[in-house]
């Protein structure tokens, strides 16, 4: 009875979330913000609500705030706005953020743009735990060679190009209409560690650097420069192993209302609003989420009569197909891998015996019309045992795919070996055998035929 | 061919003895007698040989004498066996040389083909020993018919094995 009620409830909940058609994690969004700061981010919040997110606002010190109830996530997404406070409230320790991410929730963290503001200890701890390094209080990024505003003496407002990535990485952060738009940025910046889970999303221009504005008033030397150029990340994204996402924005003004304006220097609209949409969409899993729609493999032996069978034979052709689709805001669409990237199949027994690229196939798997079918045909190795078809596709900004299917690879049955006459190399020796046999038959015939002569000779000699 | 020559030389000492060739079995200990020794005694028994050999006879003359002796004293069936043995040696040598030149893949085929000639040679040689009238005393319990039946059975088994082994 309880089970039925629960399944009905689950169906109802999934129906509701489907009808809203937004984030795959869920729409419940927590804004940790004070009222005066919230006023600076009205456009960001209304854009989120327009995309179907339901927002709940709490101040950092709120005592009624709780992230977990009955060991379930209360919120799907969290946005931590900058605050003047040195620490967040007792209900928001750094461990609660990791627990939230472990349970699959996403977090967007906006660090203060002003060098005078504090970064709460809990956020600094969280950053260290995910291999992102924040400069101490008082640092700011400057670029003296590309001024956003000529009248600003400190040069702390930067003009930054929209992100670009190598051709093997999908770019989810340049989807706005104006691809050449500049971003307005001010803040301290981040340094990104070597963890493969962390990816810089937006990097500083070449001549920008982050330095200590309090210590170095006249010039900056290496004592008080945090990091510089392309090493300096302005926005960085973390995707945990369970594909939850944590994004750090080095300067909150990047997403604030005041940046969604015309840039004085170029007299063009800044790209900030579109970029804010891209960053929130990626963080809250509206983009870059992959789904495996189906896996099919079959062998040469039975063809497609036996799909996903348990047993294959060594040195036989096997075809493997996987159907992949990608979430894009409110629907799944066929996933197309970047040009220089490849979805790969591993055929593994302890170690991969093969690692081969899967090619997008024209024939879709029958029941999955709305996905790309990646497939390949290969010959099983000359080794029997329990093998695994594994698709291990882990790429920056894409949710992790690690699919495994174990099958048995058997050896030749006794009647499956090539017969001697099927191997042209053995023909001389086959001929040898039959020459001996025919010669032997001739010999036996002559022996029997020659008997009387011998008997006669013997008889004569005996006499 | 080498075997033929060896066989042919064996009766040679007996040829110069006063006894008949049929009893040459008893001369087995003397089989190692060297050719010069033979030729030195040949003058005393020249009446039994059509070719007269002296101490300084040419090798060709010796070989001719051996050949003539073989032709004269070897039974028809033994000659037939010798021809078949020569045939097997040739077929086996061809297969072996082919294996050396062209490679031994598939190896079981080579083993079967070459083994067929070797095995057949052994069986045929056994038949020759058992049916040679010169060896009659040693194989008094084995009649030539019995030896031939054994030979046929053994050969058929060998052929069956080889054809199976080559698959």
TrEMBL record, chain A:
Keyword Transferase carried by entry: yes
Pathway where this protein functions: Protein modification; protein glycosylation
Name by which UniProt lists this protein: Dolichyl-diphosphooligosaccharide--protein glycosyltransferase subunit WBP1
Biological processes per GO annotation: protein N-linked glycosylation via asparagine
InterPro entries the record matches: DDOST_48_kDa_subunit (IPR005013), OST48_MD (IPR055459), OST48_N (IPR055457)
Annotated compartments: Endoplasmic reticulum membrane; Membrane
GO function terms (MF aspect): transferase activity
Transmembrane parts of this sequence: 427-449
Function: Subunit of the oligosaccharyl transferase (OST) complex that catalyzes the initial transfer of a defined glycan (Glc(3)Man(9)GlcNAc(2) in eukaryotes) from the lipid carrier dolichol-pyrophosphate to an asparagine residue within an Asn-X-Ser/Thr consensus motif in nascent polypeptide chains, the first step in protein N-glycosylation. N-glycosylation occurs cotranslationally and the complex associates with the Sec61 complex at the channel-forming translocon complex that mediates protein translocation across the endoplasmic reticulum (ER).
Keyword tags: Endoplasmic reticulum, Membrane, Signal, Transferase, Transmembrane, Transmembrane helix
Encoding gene (name): WBP1
Pfam family of the protein (one): OST48_N
Signal peptide: 1-21
Family indicated by similarity: Belongs to the DDOST 48 kDa subunit family.
Subunit structure: Component of the oligosaccharyltransferase (OST) complex.
Protein topology in the membrane: Single-pass type I membrane protein
Chief location: endoplasmic reticulum
The organism of origin for this protein: Arthrobotrys musiformis
Sequence ranges assigned to domain OST48 N-terminal in this UniProt record: 28-283
One GO cellular component term noted in the UniProt record for this chain: oligosaccharyltransferase complex
Domain OST48 middle: 308-451
UniProtKB/TrEMBL annotation, chain B:
Cellular component aspect of the GO annotation: oligosaccharyltransferase complex
Annotated stretches, region: Disordered: 1-51
Transmembrane spans: 80-103, 109-127
Tree of life domain: Eukaryota
Pfam families for the chain: DAD
Residue stretches of biased makeup (Low complexity): 27-51
Main location class: endoplasmic reticulum
Pathway: Protein modification; protein glycosylation
Compositional bias per record (Polar residues), positions renumbered to this chain: 17-26
Subunit structure, interactors included: Component of the oligosaccharyltransferase (OST) complex.
Family: Belongs to the DAD/OST2 family.
Name this polypeptide is given: Dolichyl-diphosphooligosaccharide--protein glycosyltransferase subunit OST2
């Amino acid at each position: 009875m309880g089970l039925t009620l629960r399944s009905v409830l689950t169906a109802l909940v999934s129906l509701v979330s489907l009808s809203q058609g937004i984030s795959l994690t869920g729409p419940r969004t927590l804004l940790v913000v004070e009222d005066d700061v919230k006023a600076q981010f009205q456009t960001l919040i209304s854009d989120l609500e327009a995309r179907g997110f339901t927002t709940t606002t709490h101040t950092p010190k709120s005592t009624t705030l709780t992230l977990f109830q009955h060991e379930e996530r209360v919120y799907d997404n969290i946005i931590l706005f900058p605050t003047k406070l040195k620490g967040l409230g007792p209900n928001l320790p750094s461990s609660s953020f990791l627990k939230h991410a472990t349970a699959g929730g996403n977090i967007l963290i906006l660090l203060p743009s002003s060098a005078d503001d504090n970064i709460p200890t809990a956020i600094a701890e969280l950053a260290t735990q995910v291999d992102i390094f924040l400069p101490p209080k008082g640092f700011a990024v400057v670029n003296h060679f590309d001024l956003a505003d000529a009248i600003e003496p400190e040069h702390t407002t930067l003009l930054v190009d929209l992100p670009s990535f190598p051709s093997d990485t999908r770019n989810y952060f340049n989807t706005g209409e104006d691809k050449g738009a500049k971003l307005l940025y001010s803040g301290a910046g981040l340094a990104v560690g070597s963890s493969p889970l962390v990816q810089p999303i937006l990097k500083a221009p070449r001549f920008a650097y982050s330095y200590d504005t309090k210590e170095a008033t006249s010039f900056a030397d290496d004592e008080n420069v945090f990091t510089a150029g392309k090493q300096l990340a302005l926005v960085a994204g973390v995707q945990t192993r369970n594909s939850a996402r944590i994004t750090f924005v080095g300067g909150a003004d990047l997403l604030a209302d005041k940046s969604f304006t015309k840039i004085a220097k170029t007299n063009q609209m800044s790209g900030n609003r579109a970029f804010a949409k891209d960053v929130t969409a990626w963080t809250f899993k509206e983009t870059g989420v992959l789904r495996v729609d189906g896996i099919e493999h079959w062998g040469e032996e039975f063809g497609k009569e036996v799909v996903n069978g348990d047993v294959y034979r060594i040195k036989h052709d096997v075809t493997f197909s996987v159907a992949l689709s990608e979430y894009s805001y409110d629907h799944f669409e066929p996933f197309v891998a970047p040009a220089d990237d490849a979805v790969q199949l591993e055929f593994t027994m302890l170690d991969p015996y093969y690692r081969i690229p899967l090619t997008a196939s024209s024939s879709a798997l029958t029941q999955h019309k709305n996905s790309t079918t990646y497939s390949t045909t290969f010959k099983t190795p000359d080794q029997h045992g329990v093998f695994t078809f594994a698709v291990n596709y882990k790429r920056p900004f894409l949710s992790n795919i690690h699919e495994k299917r174990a099958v048995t690879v058997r050896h030749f049955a006794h009647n499956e070996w090539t017969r001697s006459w099927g191997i042209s190399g053995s023909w001389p020796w086959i001929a040898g055998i039959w020459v001996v046999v025919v010669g032997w038959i001739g010999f036996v015939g002559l022996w029997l035929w020659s008997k009387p002569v011998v008997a006669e000779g013997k008889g004569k000699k005996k006499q | 061919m080498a075997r033929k020559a060896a066989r042919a030389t064996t009766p040679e000492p007996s040829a110069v003895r006063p006894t008949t060739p049929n009893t040459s079995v008893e001369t087995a200990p003397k089989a190692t007698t060297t050719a010069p020794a033979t030729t030195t005694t040949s003058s005393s028994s020249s009446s039994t040989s059509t070719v007269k050999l002296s101490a300084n006879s040419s090798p060709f003359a010796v070989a001719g004498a051996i050949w003539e002796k073989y032709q004269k004293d070897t039974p028809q069936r033994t000659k037939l066996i010798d021809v078949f043995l020569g045939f097997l040696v040739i077929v086996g040598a061809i297969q072996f040389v082919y294996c050396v030149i062209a490679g031994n893949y598939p190896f079981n085929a080579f083993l079967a083909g070459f083994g067929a000639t070797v095995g057949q040679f052994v069986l045929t040689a056994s038949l020759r020993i058992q049916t040679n009238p010169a060896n009659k005393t040693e194989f008094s319990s084995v009649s030539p018919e019995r030896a031939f039946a054994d030979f046929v059975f053994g050969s058929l088994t060998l052929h069956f094995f080889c054809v199976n082994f080559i698959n």
